[in-house]
Amino acid sequence: MDFFGVNIPVYSWETVLGSAISGVFLGAIYALVALGLTLIYGVLHIINFAHGSLLMLAMYAVYFAWVYLGLDPYLAMLIVVPGGFAFGYALQRGVIGKVSHGRDEIILLATLGLAIIIENSAQFFFSANERQVQVRYDLDGIDLGVTFAVYPELLALGGSLLITLLLWLFMVYTDTGKAIRAVAKERRGAQLVGINVEHIFAISFGIGTACVAAAASLLAPTYTVHPQSGYLFVLIAFTVVVLGGMGSFVGALVGGFIIGITEQLGRLYLGESLGLITISAIFILILLFRPTGLFGQRAP
Amino acid sequence: MTEKNKTKGMRRRDFIATGAAAAAVGITGFPAILRAQTKAVKIGIVHPVTGFLQFSGTQCRYGALQAVREINAAGGIKSLGGAKLEPVLGDAQSKAQVGAAEVEKFNEAGVSAIVGAYASGICLATTQAAAKHGIPHAVDVGVNDKIVGRGLENTFRFGPGFGLITKRGTEGLIELNKAAGNVVKRIVIVHENTTPFGSYMASLMKKGLEPAGFEVVEVLPHPTPNKDFRNIALKIKEIKPDVVIPSHYYNEGALFLRTLQRQRVSPKVIYSVLGGASSQYRFVNEFSDAAQYVFDCNHWFNPKNPAAQALRKVSEAAGKSYSYEVFLAYTAVKFVADAIERAGSADRAKIIEALAASTWGGHFMPYGPTKIVKGQNQGAQPLVMQVQGKEIEVVSPAGFKTKKAIFPRPA
Questions:
Q1: Mean pLDDT per segment of 10 residues, for chain A of length 300 residues?
Q2: How is chain B split into domains, by residue range?
Q3: Is A273–B232 a contact, with Cβ atoms under 8 angstroms apart?
């Protein structure tokens, strides 16, 4: 089909639908990675450049739990999620908070520095070898007619919906969630009513890291882990966070699906390389009409 | 003690001490002087050990260093009095310009030769930078024919270029199809397009296969790295080709074959040319089902040479997969070491002369003794392999065959 001089291939509806469904699965993964990122941004108002490195580290944890403890990656969540929380909490309290002195530009540099340290340490200790968790149900799944959905993909989709719901419930109904929201909205006011802001910062960073650890468990059966594996997802997760509205969980979820579906359909019609420009196109288009993102709120 | 007394005579204790020192010099002193004279020969070893090519780059570095270890353990460069090879390591970070910058550092460090740099794009940059300083550069893997086609006198490639690999790959497919009674015709080519090798290979394959009666119905390029092959699998499902020809690096190769398996896409033949995962023991061990019956025209060792199997054992004992990166970088270092041995000098110009005149036959690749014309080893050739069970069997050419090809794959 010729469209303004550009030859657009024609595919059967089965292929197009199959591609869109694969976009939903891909979007679920983006959303999973973006959830932690958006939480950290929402509270600390910083972009966490170490997010990809933390994802990679969590994927290694899942891999080693599988190799040395024989743990299925989904069961490994029971270890890596609390571990991720503790690691994130300690990182914020012991490193980022201490070196930043409350200045945002230093926090950015601190997370960037952490990313470099984590990545190079992984390369030194774990080598550049790609490693892959193998599960016996890797090829099992449901035939959707137009495409075959394997269990790891379905679990990643279910996991991302469940984690979004849990986070939302946590933020709305728990005292800690309310404290996080208070700090995110008005730091000084929260301090005045007796909320320990440093503790809330660390809890937020911890939850963000726990989210990334959960994402690592859900990604491990499908993707290889190597010192740079985090980058594959995190760069797009940044786009998802801005598109969905910085600090919004629902925004991260919806943004993830929009980007996933757009990317897959773009790649189908424009090719695997050129198709990636559709992500930027949809991103610019949405921000033109909603500068705060789909579910973002205007700054007070 | 006065000054006079000091010079008057030697005391017993001084005599014993001096005698012992003299004896020590007598026993060890001269070899010590000899060792000082045999200065180590510095070799620059550059690979992309970080960035998206880090797996292959690390494999290459391991192979190169293993060769250095073996050469040094066997007494170093004998014509230089047993001079040891001293590796100077560089990381191209998967970027051509960084590779070129590493060559500048090598020049400052005074290396006599360079081995590297895995990817074609990086090799094009490193060989050119090395030419500026007259440093001999042995290319270990880089298959782009332009690497040795630019008239650079310092550049040598021991292995084959992709012009020849693609030609052999095309001939191999035609031969296998003919032997099976021309059972396949429609082809889809899937290739990476971030570096020059994938796109060029695809165009050469198309040109070679269509006159032979094959129909290339679709060419599907993709970037490196690529995290999802489902769209490509869906397209292949719709097109229903007889043969899929993939060509990419390891990560993409592994993910592509696994995606085909997950999406229940099983063409009659998967025949890769320079397929990243298809002839890797690691992939065969980890994803045996996805790898079964996959063909690959690629770099390979002479399966009948025991030295090749010995290196496989050493590599696996060190926890390294025995991949083409390992044995190509290994042989490239030995190729350079042989030239230094014959040059009898660490001088760059003399090593270049020795490499150009090389007739080295002490390797385990299926190339025969080296014969260099315009930097390219004329005997270099790829082999066609097929995964059968847990082994990678050579199925063509006849002289190196270890098993008969299974073509097409059983339903």
A1: 71 93 93 90 81 94 95 95 96 89 80 91 83 86 90 92 92 93 89 92 93 93 87 86 88 94 93 88 89 75
A2: 3-37, 41-159+304-380, 163-298+384-400
A3: no
Strands B372-373 vs B295-298: parallel, antiparallel or unpaired:
unpaired
Spatial separation of the C-alpha atoms in residues B70 and B86, rounded to whole Å? 12
Class of domain B163-298+384-400 (CATH, top level): alpha beta
* Overall average pLDDT of the B396-401 stretch: 91
Tens of pLDDT along B311-341?
999 999 998 889 999 999 999 999 999 999 9
Question: What is the fold of A2-289?
Answer: ABC transporter involved in vitamin B12 uptake, BtuC (1.10.3470)
Q: Using the beta-carbon criterion (under 8 Å), do B227 and A147 form an inter-chain contact?
A: no
Yes or no, beta carbons of A271 and B221 under 8 Å apart: yes
What CATH number belongs to B41-159+304-380?
Answer: 3.40.50.2300
Terminal-to-terminal C-alpha distance of chain B: 100
Q: How many beta-carbon pairs under 8 angstroms link A with B?
A: 87
pLDDT-derived band at B10, boundaries 50, 70, 90: very low
Judge if the upstream peptide bond of residue B382 is cis by omega within 30 degrees of 0: no
Specify the pTM. 0.80
Q: What is the CA angle A103-A107-A108, rounded to 5?
A: 120
Tokens standing for residue A214: 């959960």
- ipTM value, please give it: 0.81
Running DSSP on this structure, what letter comes out for residue B409?
A: -
Residue B130 contacts residue B79 (beta carbons within 8 Å) = no
Cβ atoms within 10 Å of B398's Cβ, excluding its own: 7
What does the longest C-alpha to C-alpha distance in chain A come to? 65
Q: SS3 for A130?
A: coil
- Contact at CB, A228 and B52, closer than 8 angstroms: yes
C-alpha torsion B338→B342→B348→B350, nearest 10: -150
For an interface test with B, the pick among A10, A21, A22, A142 (most B C-beta atoms closer than 10 Å) comes out as A22
pLDDT score for B110 = 95
User: Cβ A268–B51 below 8 Å, yes or no?
Assistant: no
B residues 175..194 contacting A (CB < 8 A): 193
- Give the H or E element holding residue B373: strand B372-373
Determine phi and psi for A291, rounding to 5 degrees.
-60, -25
CA distance B69 to B76: 9
Question: How much is the pLDDT for A40?
Answer: 87
Q: Is the CB of residue B45 less than 8 Å from the CB of residue B2? A: no
Q: Collect all residues with Cβ–Cβ distance below 8 Å to B351 and sequence separation of at least 6.
A: B112, B113, B136, B336, B339, B340, B343, B345
DSSP B129: H
